[in-house]
From TrEMBL:
Protein name, UniProt field: WASH complex subunit 5
Disordered: region residues: 1-36
Pfam families in the record: Strumpellin
Keyword Repressor attributed: no
Signal peptide bounds: none
Family, per entry: Belongs to the strumpellin family.
Species per Swiss-Prot/TrEMBL record: Blattamonas nauphoetae
Lineage: Eukaryota, Metamonada, Preaxostyla, Oxymonadida, Blattamonas
Cited InterPro entries: Ribosomal_uS12, WASH_strumpellin
Composition bias, Pro residues: 1-11
Length: 1187
């Protein structure tokens, strides 16, 4: 008799009960529409989003506080004592302003200070204003809520609403966080100085709430460097009291925190040992808002006992906002009730027990995590089967990691001594890396399960129905080769099963799970039927169907809630600041084993969960600040990644140093011919083995970082190849900057030392470049391109910083367009009181070596010669050595720095001239100039010389200043000419095609400009928007094809009789000079102590007059020619008289005065860009040629 056929499970046609709502991430992300429909929630959400954005801006600005506002050096204190003032200014405003207004130098310094810092001061003021407005709006909201302004809303209804309660409590917390962070990141005295500086720049009229802002931001006396142990009395409760938050509301909020889980976190942490982690966010809120109601801290022991038992039963170091840590044993020391509650719970015995528990937990989770990470274990099927166990391990691992990481930073000495022998940072890092690796694998597998969930379900369902259909057909009469007797009841039963399998709906997970389980039970029961039990094939088919149905249950159990659970327990927002303490350990791990970089990628991704906390409310509010906030925190994370991985480029450069030492000093080249017996010795196999090992290490480190996949850190994608290149650039810049900074220092100011320093710099830079070229193929980078780009960027950056001394609005280091966060250029402390960087030292040393006080310039030798010995000091050889040491880009920026010096000298001199020559004095000078007779006639020379003498006597200081300016700019112009000449020669030798191309393009553009001015209607001017002109100018300057003598440095207004003043100064100076035939008939000073030089004088005069309209140059030449002609006429008359008296009398020689004037005009003609006929008209050619 056959077994009875079991009935199929009944079909469930009733509507499915709703599935459980997915667990929310802390805090739950309610839809934006849910907030916008309620004005209370919308206002609170906007307020909280503003708070997070303000904190991000505070963090951003705190990294860029100008050092002068800290007044850390005696120089800054002395220089800015009347400019940078704290709130003392508000008590005696008129007195402080009078001190500045009565001093011209202080007025100039104040103007320069404002130009430099005004934009940054405006941002700081906007920050302080936003903090004040946040507090004001928060207090106003509380008052309006209590007064019933919001219809159908009271304090109780807000605190009873799930979302509103979270937002309301967070708004109070963020207010306190802003105050604490402001006092920590921007110290009180600095805040006062920033506010007063902006107040003095703008005035009280434009700043509406300045009094209230100053009252809020007034210094509290708290010093972050000393910490909480030496804080002012009643800090920070008095500081929090400045906002005026209603205390009764804060008490109500504290009550909710004491009794409720407002973020529903306990569902993610079911174990009692995990409760402190589950309530960590509420604990941080509790820590902050207690300072708004300090009476609880002081005198409510029962409340504090309850709070400590709930939130701080085994943890006394907490993170209150994005990794900002506090040690409650230290912070709550002054508060009687809080201290008593902590001492009751946090006892040495409890700490010892907690440490033992955490140690056991650490060992256990490390064992479990390492077990899960065994190769090949973590598969999709394994994850589905063991998800509960894996999640439990992850919870325990993250709770243990959090506790150890935070409490290792405790400042309580007794407990620290108990902790540190048991746990170390190496333990924390090992657990962090392994946990992050497990989380990454689990998320990847589970995300794949979720994304393919529908396809897997359909595939399993289709396979099951096909098998059941085939079984039913077997019992319908048999198909295929297997002989099975017909059984209509089994056929009908299997077709009914097939219908039920087909009816299981994926969209109804609860009923689908129950149906599938009943179907599996029915198939197990039917297998006991005799006809089926005897058929191995049917039993195998049924086994396959049961397996498919089991997989369907597993598939339907893959839910988004599990991913949310994983994300919640893997949060690391508490480690935002602490993670930086583990950079050195991570770098050491990479150095020991380069392949660990791929594991660190998982750690970086785990750390990126920090971004979710500050951005969540901003995204919910759709705030316009979301991009800037996300970018700031993402950049911070990327900087952390770069800092960790920077060990790879550092190690590469260390290996480069060993390689270059090996290849340059130890390895010898093979001679062209050698004996066969000497081959082994010449091969130097041990050295070549060392070279191969070093090269292999370079490749290993490179492969280690390149194995890391692309990773999104917030809104920024981290490409490992880009990170490697940026790291190499950073290390290269560091090395180049350090070499140039350390070698280019000249304490003795002697030529020999200058040459030795240049040789040293050339040797070190050549070695660095050679080693960099050697490894470029092994690391897959374009070495020459990187070298040139970084050298160019480095040169421009240091030039920009050096030129700050010539500018009113200075460019801060972090504001520079040439600065790069990924590869920052270091700015070393100045080694002297004048120069900021090595470019300034090098340029000023070159100026000092060629100073007219001990050198004269000889055009014949193309060099500066010593005044006494007539030996060459600086010439072509030294400029060649300079080129070898600093390369093209640095020589080009030296040329540009000289241009800035010339422009600064000209601007300062013209300003003095305008200031010194007032209207009456200018009229006297004009009268004296007119008294010299019209330039076209030939008056008595005495008349001209008398006019010159009277003018010099009238304005001696002006003439002296003018000559000093002319000599200096002439000296600097000659240096520029030499630099341009060396660059031009190097370009023609090393890149002749580029040189000729630039020359041709320049000539073509000049021809276009000339054609435009001739026929403007038919020939267009090159467009001002076209980049060709500025780009060509930059290239021409780099290759030495610009002409410094034809350059206009400053745009000046006409100065009355400036040509006559230059003429007076030149004539006076020429009277103190003589011609030196040994150096090529150049003008030198008669007195060796007199710092005069003829060639710089001529070059300087030509350059100075070039800054004015060409009519001034023409007028100067006319006056000068008038004097020359007058002296020659007088000389001719005297010579004629003497020859008439006696025919035997020799013609007298030219007086020194005439010789100096004639020689000077010959020099001037070389450098003044004027037509030849302009000189010939004023100074007859036969006079110059005869001389």
């Amino acid at each position: 008799m056959s077994d009875p056929i079991p009935s199929p499970p009944p079909l469930e046609v009733s509507a499915e009960t709703p599935a459980a709502a997915p667990a929310a991430s802390p805090p739950p992300q309610a839809p934006v529409d849910q907030f916008s429909s309620d004005p209370v929630k919308q206002n609170l959400l906007n307020l909280v989003a503003r708070g997070h954005a303000t904190i991000a801006e505070m963090r951003r600005l705190s990294d860029h506080i100008p050092s002068v506002f800290k007044l850390e050096t005696k120089e800054d204190i002395q220089k800015y004592q009347y400019i940078i003032v704290d709130f003392r200014y508000l008590r005696q405003t008129d007195l402080w302003d009078q001190r500045v207004d009565s001093n011209i130098d202080l007025l100039d310094l104040m103007e320069e200070f404002r130009e430099t810092h005004l934009d940054l001061l405006a941002r700081f003021y906007a920050l302080f204003e936003s903090i004040y407005n946040y507090g004001k709006d928060l207090v106003m909201f509380c008052e309006q809520l209590k007064d019933g302004i919001y219809v159908s809303h009271t304090v109780e209804t807000v605190l009873n609403d799930f979302d509103a309660r979270q937002l309301f409590i967070e708004s109070i917390q963020l207010c306190g966080v802003m105050l604490l962070l402001m006092d920590t990141t921007i110290e009180g005295p600095v805040r006062e100085r920033l506010l007063i500086a902006y107040y003095r720049a703008k005035g009280p009229v434009e700043l509406v709430d300045v009094d209230q802002i100053c009252a809020l931001c007034r210094s509290t006396g708290f010093n972050p460097s000393l910490g909480w142990t030496k804080r002012p009395e009643k800090y920070p409760e008095d500081f929090f009291g400045r906002v005026g938050v209603p205390k009764d509301l804060v008490h109500l909020m504290l009550g909710r925190l004491r009794n409720e889980d407002i973020y529903l976190q306990l569902q993610f942490y079911p174990s009692p040992e995990q409760r402190p982690t589950a309530l960590a966010q509420m604990a941080s809120i509790c820590f902050i808002i207690l300072f708004f109601i300090p009476d609880v801290l002081y005198s409510q022991p029962s409340t504090m006992n309850e709070l400590v038992n709930r939130f701080f039963s085994d943890n006394w170091v907490i993170s209150y906002y994005m990794g900002q840590r506090v040690d409650l044993l230290q912070v709550w020391e002054p508060y009687k009730a809080a201290k008593q509650a902590m001492n009751t719970v946090i006892t040495p015995l409890l700490i010892q027990q907690t440490i033992e528990f955490r140690k056991h937990s650490y060992d256990q989770v490390m064992k479990e995590v390492n077990g899960y990470l065994s190769e090949g274990l973590m598969t999709e099927d394994y994850v589905v089967d063991h998800m509960v166990q894996i999640l439990t391990t992850l919870r325990n691992s993250n709770c243990t990691l959090r506790w150890i990481m935070l409490h290792l930073t405790t400042s309580y000495k007794k407990f620290a001594e108990m902790l540190r022998p048991v746990f170390s940072k190496d333990d924390v890092l090992a657990l962090m890396i392994q946990t992050a690796q497990l989380e990454l694998i689990l998320k990847k597998l589970y995300q794949n399960l979720l994304s393919t969930k529908q396809d897997r379900w359909d595939k399993l369902k289709t396979s099951s129905t096909q098998i059941i259909t085939e079984i039913a057909e077997f019992f319908a009469g048999g198909t295929g080769t297997t002989k099975i007797s017909k059984n209509e009841e089994l056929e009908k039963w299997f077709r009914e099963i097939n219908t039920q399998i087909a009816s299981v709906d994926y969209r109804e997970p609860n009923s689908a799970g129950r149906k599938t389980a009943k179907l599996i039970a029915a198939l197990e029961e039917v297998e006991q039927f005799q006809q089926i039990e005897q058929s191995l094939q049917i039993r195998q088919f049924l086994s396959d169907v049961r397996q498919n149905l089991t997989l369907m249950i597993r598939t339907i159990n893959c839910r988004e809630e599990t991913m949310i659970n994983i994300q919640v327990v893997s949060d690391m927002s508490y480690a935002w600041e602490t993670a930086a303490e583990y950079i050195a350990l991570m770098q050491h791990s990479i150095k020991q084993q380069a392949s660990i970089v791929s594991k660190l990628r998982a750690t970086f991704l785990k750390l990126s969960t920090m971004l979710e906390f500050p951005l969540m409310r901003i995204m919910q509010a759709n705030s316009p600040d979301k991009e800037s906030v996300a970018e700031y925190y993402s950049n911070r994370l990327v900087s952390f990644v770069r800092s960790v991985l920077q060990v790879v480029p550092i190690t590469l450069f260390e290996l480069m140093g060993q390689i270059i030492k090996l290849t340059t000093t130890e390895l010898r080249d093979f001679p062209p011919k050698f004996a066969k017996e000497a081959m082994r010795d010449l091969a130097q196999l041990p050295l070549r083995t060392r070279l191969a090992k070093l090269t292999h290490e370079v490749v290993s480190f490179t492969d280690g970082i390149l194995e890391m996949e692309k990773t999104n850190m917030g809104v920024i994608e981290v490409n490992p190849k880009v990170v490697l290149e940026e790291g190499v650039r950073k290390e290269l810049v560091q090395k180049m900057s350090l070499i140039l900074h350390t070698t280019l220092q000249f304490p003795t100011h002697k030529v020999g030392e200058f040459e030795d320093r240049l040789k040293s710099a050339a040797l070190q830079m050549a070695g660095l470049r050679a080693s960099f070229e050697y490894i470029q193929d092994y690391v897959g980078l374009y070495g020459l391109k990187i070298w040139q780009e970084e050298m160019q960027r480095l040169s421009n950056f240091y030039l920009e910083q050096e030129c700050n001394t010539f500018l009113k609005k200075r460019v801060f280091e972090w504001q520079s367009e040439f600065q790069n966060e990924a590869a920052p250029i270091p700015l070393f402390p100045p080694t002297d009181s004048i120069s900021t960087t090595f470019i300034g030292r090098l340029t000023r040393e070159l100026i000092e070596l060629t100073s007219p006080s001990h050198c004269v310039y000889s055009f014949r030798h193309t060099a500066w010669m010593d005044r006494q010995t007539r030996d060459e000091v600086v010439g072509v050889r030294l400029f060649t050595l300079l080129y070898n040491a600093v390369d093209v880009s640095l020589m080009a920026v030296m040329d540009r720095l000289l241009s800035f010096m010339i422009a600064s000298t000209l601007s300062r001199t013209t300003l003095i001239l305008k200031r010194e020559i007032d209207r009456s004095m200018g009229l006297n000078v004009l009268n004296l100039a007119s008294a010299a007779a019209p330039p076209g006639c030939v008056p008595d020379s005495n008349r001209i010389l008398n006019s010159v003498a009277q003018t010099f006597k009238l304005v001696p200081r002006v003439c002296a200043t003018l000559i000093d300016c002319i000599l200096r700019i002439g000296h600097l112009q000659l240096l520029r000419c030499h630099l341009q000449s060396r660059l031009r020669a190097a370009c023609k030798l090393e890149s002749s095609v580029l040189c000729e191309t630039l020359e041709t393009l320049n000539e073509a553009l000049l021809l276009d400009v000339e054609q435009h001015y001739r026929k403007p209607d038919t020939n267009a001017m090159p467009s001002a928007e076209s980049p060709i002109l500025p780009e060509l100018s930059r290239y021409l300057q780099m290759v030495g094809q610009s002409n410094p003598l034809s350059q206009v440095y400053v745009a000046t207004e006409p100065i009355a009789s400036i040509d006559f003043l230059v003429f007076v100064g030149i004539v006076d100076v020429l009277g103190r000079m003589q011609i030196d035939t040994s150096l090529g008939n150049i003008l030198v000073a008669r007195n060796i102590k007199d710092p005069l030089d003829g060639v710089p004088l001529a070059v300087g005069a030509a350059t100075f007059l070039k800054q004015f309209h060409s009519s001034f140059s023409t007028s100067f030449i006319e006056r000068y020619g008038q004097l020359v002609r007058a002296l020659y006429t007088e000389y001719g008359r005297n010579a004629l008289k003497e020859t008439e008296i006696s025919a035997k009398t020799k013609i007298p020689s030219l007086s020194p005065e005439i010789q100096n004037l004639t020689r000077f005009v010959m020099e001037l003609k070389k450098y003044m860009v004027l037509p030849d006929d302009a000189f010939d008209t004023c100074v007859p050619r036969h006079i110059v040629e005869s001389f």
